[in-house]
Amino acid sequence: MPVKAKSHPPKRKAAHASVPPPKWPAFHPLVATSDLSLETLLDDQILVIRSLFTSTLCKNYVSFLSSLPLTTTLGTPKKGDAVRVNDRFEVHDPSFADQLWLSTGLKDLVNGTVSTEDTEDQLITPEERRKLWGGEVCGLNPRIRVYRYSKGQFFDRHYDESNIIVLPSNPPVTAKTTWTLLLYLTGPTTGVVGGETIFYPELGPAKKFSGKTSEGTEPITVGLEV
Fold this sequence. Notes:
The protein is an alpha+beta fold. 15% of the residues lie in helices and 21% in strands. The chain has helices at residues 55-65, 94-103, 106-111, 126-133; strands spanning 11-12, 39-42, 46-48, 71-72, 84-85, 87-92, 113-115, 120-122, 143-148, 154-155, 163-167, 173-176, 197-199, 220-222. Strand 7 and strand 8 form a beta hairpin.
């Protein structure tokens, strides 16, 4: 999901160093990168990767995340924020972001490459890649958020803002967030009802959000698949 473009400079986010990173489960087992693909639901706005995590890996993470100190958000938001009632955990963890980017096949999918032991095939041109993602892709935001929804909880309609971040490579890289990555760990096959994400198509190009949905365009609901 692309983040909301703003007329003023993107915000700079400080590192959340007060919360120590947890010991995340290993990314195993995984689906072979050659069996994964990017599916377009709405040009320049919604892309889906089906089965990025195996059902076993999802179960491992659901079990692990239940041990984290999630905090229930207040029902009254700050001025200008959407109403959000859920349980959440947030941590700054560059190592986890890097492992998620490199180990799961995300980097190859985003860059449009298929790597084997001997070759690397380019599926899209560098120009197509920059146009799709809003620039040269350099990794994932190390600001990790875990959301859990119980019956009656929700996150109201909102935009994800673009932020300026620093990736701790050598040397450090200053970057701007352009898309949001959502990973779903539960769904109907695990007994979960509801929890889908609803998208509201925008008027005009995705990079120039108007704040209004296209006339006669129905919202797009992305179901949960695990």
